[in-house]
Amino acid sequence: MFTAILLAIAQLPERGMRRPLLLTLFWSIVVLAVLWVAVGWGVAYETATSTWLRWGAGLLGAVGVPLITWFMFPSVALMILGFYSDAIIEAVERRHYPGLPPAPPTRWHAVLWSGIRLALISILLNIGGLILGLLFLPSLPFLFFGLNGYLLGREYFNAVALRRLSDREVDLLWQRHRMAFIFCGATAAGLFLIPFVNLVAPMVGTAASVHLVERLRQSERVLATG
Description:
This protein is an all-alpha fold.
């Protein structure tokens, strides 16, 4: 478990991992810039008839837009990273599991839907992080890490396992080892709470899931043949 996470972190500086991260950051900035301009234009249009409204909207925008941008950036980055998840998985497989045959191509609509799901989960994570900072209750960390660990762990597991396993094999592997993947998701959830580190959290979760899936597959194969 810990080995998979450490291997994922250690591989982040490699070229195969840097390119998806840089592309994700670039397109995330583009998307947020477009949204920022669109919101600013919409507010200016709606308040064009009132000086007081323009002044209030300008003040709110000067404070609120940067805060919202910081809040939304990891979610947007996570959605866009979905388009490069295959590149991350392939980089890990090429580095640590060179004997694997090529995986079937992933359908673009499946990648898009996975990215949207992960982005929505990321928004929940950020909201949970804000609540955790404002209302520190003894039970809240357990709820936060438990719920989001399950959601993220399942999403990262599916992104990796569905590339090479049948639906039945995916279900069996999840049923037998779900706690390992939930712990992986909980670790990624913890990374989401740390500014700047949250940008690489989905990469760590995806890469660690590759190690978990492959090592568990190999161990079960050994047990079956033994």
